[in-house]
TrEMBL record:
GO molecular function, one term: acyltransferase activity, transferring groups other than amino-acyl groups
Gene3D superfamilies found in the cross-reference section: 3.40.630.30
Alphabetized CDD domains for the sequence: NAT_SF (cd04301)
Keywords assigned by UniProt, alphabetized: Acyltransferase, Transferase
One family name in Pfam for this protein: Acetyltransf_1
The N-acetyltransferase domain, residue ranges: 11-172
Keyword Metal-binding: no
Source organism of this protein record: Rhizobium redzepovicii
InterPro entries linked to this entry: Acyl_CoA_acyltransferase, Bact_Acetyltransf, GNAT_dom
Domain of life: Bacteria
Coiled coil spans: none
Protein name: GNAT family N-acetyltransferase
Amino acid sequence: MDAAASETSDIRIEPIAAAHIDSFHRALDVVAREKKYLSMLEATPLPDTRAFVMGMIAKGNPQFVAIAQDEVVGWCDIDRHFFPSHVHRGKLGMGILPAYRSQGLGRKLIETTLRAAQEAGFLRVELDVYQDNRRAIALYKKMGFVREGIIRRAARIDGRFIHAIGMALLFDEDGPA
């Protein structure tokens, strides 16, 4: 592990901004190409990533990045559902570059993002996590997410089916329910 990865105190968590898009795109691509954690197998083209981020900002959806040495090393976002009967719900997505995992950064990112989601009026945050991603499942449980079911054959990567676990966190007026 390199020196930058061993010290998370130098990492800033901040709302994503247009200036972060190129770096976010690079980080997204690294995690996607691992073919273990995300549905995408590579980052979407940069213009599509830019449109996604700018849309998240315009909608007021919580999206935070972890910055180390002016580069995005992790992110967490919650995309609000667009149907009027579902606007109380959002879908969480996150990722962290390999050198920065297992140091508490995921917890910092998700805590910050969930706090912003609650302040923005979300009442339910949901996610799908691959069944073999034990580290993420443990983090989500610690944060109060509850397993709601299995999505069988949720993904097919390199000819192998992967099941996912659907999880959700409900907020009440005083915090997670």
